[in-house]
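Page header: ASSEMBLY MODEL / two components / 785 residues total.
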Amino acid sequence: MHINWFSPLPPARTDISNYTTRLLPALANCCSVGVWVNQPDWDVNPPAGVSINKVDSIPADWRPFNYQDHNIINLGNNADYHSAFVKIARKMPSVVILHDPNLHELVLNVIKPQAYNSEDYLHVLETYGGSEARLMGQQFLDAKLSIDTLATAYPLWQWALGNPLGVIIHNPQVLDYFRPHLDCPILLTPLPYKSAAQLRVVRQRQPRAPHDAYRLIIFGFLNSPNRRLRNVLHALAEYPRRNRFYLDIVGDIKQADDYKKLVNQLGLNQMVNFHGFVREERLCKLLDEADLAINLRYPSRGESSGSQLRIWEHALPSVVSGDGWYSALPDSVVTTIAPDDETAGLHRLWDAFLANPLPYYDQGKQGRIRLEAEHTVEVFTKRLVPFLEETNRWRGRVCAADLCSGVGRYLSGFPEASQLLLKERCAREIHTLFGDV
Amino acid sequence: MKILIATTQVPFIDGGAERHARSLRSALIRAGHEADIAAIPFKWYPPERIMEHLLACRLLDVTETCGTKIDRVIGLKFPAYHIQHPDKVLWVLHQHRGAFDLWSGPNCDLGHYPNGRAIRDGIDHVEKKLLGEAGAVYANSKNVATRLEKYSGIASTPLYHPPEGAERFYCSDAGDYFYYPSRICVMKRQELVLRALAECKADVRVIFSGHPDSPDYYNELKTLTTRLKLDQRVQWLGAVSEEDKLRLYAESRAILYVPIDEDYGYITLESFLAGKPLICCTDSGGPLEFIEDSVNGWVSEPTPGHLAKILDEAWNQRSACKAFGMAGNAKLNAMDITWKKVVSTLTK
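Prediction written out in full:
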């Protein structure tokens, strides 16, 4: 079996590139893989059986995709790495791994309404949300409405997916959302992390001495306000026993200077350390040294968190927002705080943690057990292969759907009464052709 | 019986399939049936058109005409052979080959489109499902029957038929040329012959006739002829009259026909009718059902080098050409390939 796998690769600073890097050895064990990237260069030594190729826009030659067994397209919101992929997904029926159920930002950046295509963008909004969506889209273009409000109301994933053969998601709540809207095969499988054999040896944590501060850590792609960094800093500043903690902030932050000023204003200089983007080994060391990870997302856009899996790899206790994928995690593996009670929730957690960190260390260990049971790449590939076979049958349905669209277009100019008769007749015949797939 | 022949026609293309339909109609009428041809226009690009044409065929009602029952439909080509009728017999000329035997090869157009794979799988699904609607399935050659079984799991019986105007072919003394009569297109591989000629040691001469599918490709071949310095040894006649064609057959030393996996290939039969041996390739498909190497023709590897060797050999053996041609003619007579047999099979 040969699959084409469309995904960013390092050094692309998106978790999907790490996701693919972690998966490739396991994928290469069950098939040959052609990775297709939409970026100028990459920093990966592909395992045997894996080739890496570039695709910059809509391909001029579709044969490399048509003549292989499966095309699997990873879709996330970063247009820098996914704009070619979304164009391909819309033209070529493929299996899509939906890393984010809200793809409005990607769609926006692919259509580029500000530059030249506002009518196309508004038309897409109208197609999936009616006249109200169009109106809100115009308000956004006129800078009278935020993209967050518009994207939450109209996630536009339908436009990005095109006519998929199958969809892979990693979040059960997203499945509940998609099930009524998608009739193609859907695979819900936990976000894969690493091969079981590659997981690090767990460091045993012990309560610290009274004079020794505990280490908090926030890491990952921290630019979005939904990572709650500002709120965490305020919560820490307001916490009476804040001198019992250090906070390590690890990862790229576009407004790092603003955050540093805020840390200064809040009097947190002695306890907050900005590390910026660090290499893998350095991050692992910081996670091993940490006592508690803060991994908040609010509002969550339904994404699963690679960061959470990394936290569990280190058997590190963590606190998450009660929203999206995170809200479904059991108390045995994370501490959850309500988004509308964030500051008080953090304070309660810190109080309890300082009183007795052992239950939290145990929570970290349980997280590691969950990681080993559900999130290894072996679990993913074991489910992927039969799913791909199932999606093969769906091509017939894609033909039927295209045919229905074609008929609809042809008949739209007919008088309504004859349209009905013809539609019924065509529907009957299309059902005869493809009703059993 | 009132019989409708359901076939597909690419507008302005008149080749073997069209002649086949006309000959069948004439044969049915000669046998006392009423017969007509329903030729559905066909355009296969972009690929979604294929499914739309199929749907259009499925929407047609050919059970009656002007209040009179149509007793039987004989389906010849995809997608017209999927027209619905309670008494349908298929005599398959070929399936949509881009979705089957040509898929992923150099002559497959479907693979160039983003939805090519989906349409290919859709055609595959539909063929498996609908071909069984017919009361009986015949194929126009063993080659096509093998493909039907291989790709769609449909058992069919090969049913050979004579070419149009079979009785008019005759044999004369051989002149100084090999004759390649065929539509001019990539699948017929006239280019392979040119490249072989360039490697021949003997002064082999070839006359090509036939209508080009694409003027651009025809011009490419002519340019190649000049580039290979073959202008003195190659003639491009284009479309010729029936009389000229018969004469060109009759006066040739041998007939050249080197297509890629031809379904049937009238030219093989015409060659034998004219008492001429045929030169084809190991991958030429239908002709191989008739050609016995070094008995009634020659079978070459599909490479310029090997074909050049065969052309030299055939060119230098004038007497063998004559003997092989006679052997071919005898074989054809023994096979009893007649319209009478075809009609009785398709109307039983």
